[in-house]
Amino acid sequence: MVLIEADIKDDILTVSVPDRQSISVDLKKIVQNNQIRRAMLHDQLKTDGYDCGDEIGNLIAEFLGLQKKRNLRLLYFRDELYTERDLPSSPRYWHNPVPMITDKAAYQDLSAYMVCNQGSVDELNKWLSAENPPTSIEARNFRPTILVEGVQAWDEDRWLDVRIGEAEFVCYRPCTRCILTTVHLDDGEFDSNMQPLKKLRELRLAPEGKMRDRFQNNPIFGVNMALKKPGRIRVGDEVLIRYKPTPF
Q1: Which stretches make up the MOSC domain (predicted)?
Q2: In principle, which of 23, 45, 143, 211 could form an S-S bond with 206, CB 3.0–4.6 Å?
């Protein structure tokens, strides 16, 4: 699925896959059609979505080779729709005091917003270049909502509050990583040496104690955030940080 591209401009969603014609739909019309389907996500929690139609569903199913096995649908979530999913914080997420929040979610895995630090990507690539065989990754391997540049590696371990442009966020959980980080971005295949996950498990497991008990063998890379104040953000905006006393 890493090869599937989606773009939204002026409420027009365009979905593209390699070697096939792109398909566009008007999201305003999708909402007006009011064809609502219910998805079952983590822990069997239900979330509704507007069905984006047969064309896009069939395009994705054919690209994934599932057209004869499953009736795939692409769903569009809006705030007025039903969801059972919320993302409460936990005292086990950090050794520092954790902000007590409950963030609403649609189809995201761990949070509505996840920020990565380019400095940490660069540092990880230094480690990976010394492996046998050497390899490298991009920030896109970690699928961040927001990528921050200009700070030292692992600076994000101490972030508490983040302001970007007009928007304000609260950091409440380190982002734990899984096998999807090992997918090659150019062909969608898994890395045969399990990188960068293997290296991250050597160097970026949670500290011993309640955090290790909570996250176990899942390494940390990036920060999950909740929105405190909505606002417009732009590429190149200044980022203001309020720090925790210590990392994690």
Answers
A1: 69-242
A2: 211
What is the rounded distance in angstroms from the CA atom of residue 55 to the CA atom of residue 52? 8
Cβ atoms of 47 and 107 closer than 8 Å:
yes
In the structure encoding, which two tokens stand for residue 171, read together?
């950091």
Is residue 105 helix, strand or coil? Answer: coil
Domain boundaries defined on the chain: 5-84, 87-243
Which tens digits make up the pLDDT trace of 73-110? 999 999 999 999 888 888 889 888 888 888 877 888 88
Q: What is the mean pLDDT of the chain?
A: 93
In CATH terms, 87-243 corresponds, of 1.10.260, 3.40.390, 3.30.450, 2.40.33, to 2.40.33
CA-CA distance, 216 to 214, in Å (whole number)? 6
Residue 175 — very low, low, confident or very high, per pLDDT cuts 50/70/90?
A: very high
DSSP bridge pairs for 26: 12
Nearest to 42 by CA among 136, 132, 92, 107: 107
DSSP helix/strand/coil, 203: helix
* Closest C-alpha to 171, from 154, 150, 157: 157
Expressed in angstroms, the distance from the first to the final Cα of the chain is 32
